[in-house]
Amino acid sequence: MTSPQINGAPPQIDFASVPAELQSLDQWVLWKTVIRDGNATKMPLSVFGRAASSTNAADWTSFDNAVSTYDTSQHSGIGFVFSLTDDLCGIDPDGCRDPQTGTIADWAVDEVLRFNSYTEISPSQTGLNIWIRCNSNLPIGRAKKLKVPEITNKIPAIEVYAHARYFCVTGLVYKQYRAIEHRETELQEFLRHHWPKAATIDDPPNEWRSDDAVVERARKYLDRVPGAVSGSGDHNATFYVACTVVKGFELSEPQALNVLNEWNSKCVPPWSEPELLHKIQSASKAGGETVYLRNAKAERWDAIRVPEYVAPKDRAADRYIPKSAWDAVAHPAKLRECVIEGLARRGEVVNCVASTKVGKSWLALGLLFSVSTGLDWLGRRVLKGNVLLLDNELHDETIQHRTAAVAQALRIQPSESHGRFDYIALRGESVNIVEIMDILSKYQPGDLTLVVLDAKYRFFTDGMQENSNDDQTTFHNAVDRLARQLDCVIVLVHHSTKGEQSTKGVTDVGSGGGSQSRAVDCHLVIRPHETPGLAVLDAAVRTFAPVDPQTIRWNFPLWSVADGVCAILKQEKTRGDNRQAASDKLGIEKMVAIFGEYEYALTRKALRTATGFGQARVNRLLGIGVESGTFQAVGSRTVKNGEVADLFELVPQDSDEIQRGTV
User: Is the pTM of this model over 0.70?
Assistant: First the structure.
């Protein structure tokens, strides 16, 4: 059911310890952590992989179904949705537990003692979740930050909900608190303690003009509003919704945040809570009409004119707020989930580079199969998940033939246990990166683990130049944005520059503008090995330790690791090298002819005189000839000025020796 994650362990879950009364309810979802604008947020998912709503029971499932669907390669955990149909209520003390020592803050211990009911440790290990039963449905969820000493990197806060929200469930029971108890009196004391001026659950919840009734109408109003989609005016859309609840329904900041949190489950990807709060605060500063929806009946909503709110332009000072490096040292953020061990994480881009017809597309195809099945790839672990190939070079029939060949070589058969492996054949369609973003907009964040674009240059928009730094920056910004939105690895299959490759750095092998060398997170390069039939696979990475090159072997249709073979690049000859080799060949031939005219050994000076070559060239040719076995040194003699001169002659060949033997 599960597979090990590379980037740290998934949140611990003790399914057996989840109370039976929760297991009996069909109010379960899955969830996963997604990154939006650099912030982590928990996204509820149905068992079908779609975003789930905490107000739509059609998205929920049974406990057994949630557990059997849960897969650490696609999910972060399971969750329980509070509903109007149950008598359950959840209290969430956050930022109250030191994950290293397990110490619980005194204020949270007080709440645990107050309720004396089922309590478990949160997935982040920095908080607790308390479950109780009560008579009221607590129409308004409540949340507040606490001014107490911090013991972890999360700001201490307390929240309480009875419907339209969900808790991430771990089953990690805190101490002896295993049973869910009825705690109506304690709940009212808790509310009066933390929100003394707010209405209690004894106040009439259904009076038309009461806060509870207005909040409920705002919820129903937003049920009709589609979620914001990243890349499709999501900032303006979310600001518009925030203005509707803050200005139109005149909700307070906490009320608006609760309502927007429910609507947020429909956004792709969801906003983090700080981002929603920023939208609400910006909406409260917007001018214009107010209270136009607060007391309106649902049948009049369509007739009410909602002002055209326009999101204020973000100021750089608002967007870029310094963060404490010392906080990062004390509580470093968790890196994105690793997809290819040592090479790439979710949200990253890989440039897979090689010369034409070397086999880079086959390399990418093998990687797709590995991620889909969870099999190691060239000795590296991978994260199992769904994959997609977008191929604009091969015909559909060729793609099918290649995938069948690789699957057969890997001995893989179709199985429900594998991740999806889909492909789209785009040869001749002239589909550019902008259209690819539209094609992929139907996928939710995390639906895909790996996407391969083969070949990169065919996805350029009209007029985009491969050698233009500006154009390459624009293209890679689009790909990078797509990788973040999909929360997957994107591999670009790309060709290398012409000429000698062995002397170039890994990041400089890909053809085109130099900006691409800095744009991607991993360069994966195939170059010839000094031994025919082998190649050197080298990489330059951004979020991992430096990678050693490895020798790989091509055995159709797979690349495999050549164990025990040093990764030594083939040194290609330049045009100058070729000209020198031709000159040396002619020189050797001439010297062979000279030696043939004499029956005795010759000195260097004699060879210079006979050939007309200079001293350096004669010395060079003698060195080459001796090394190749054409010439040999046979001693020396003293010349007229008293100096000793080396003597050289041709190395006798077999035919010469036979001939001499017959004389």
Answer: no
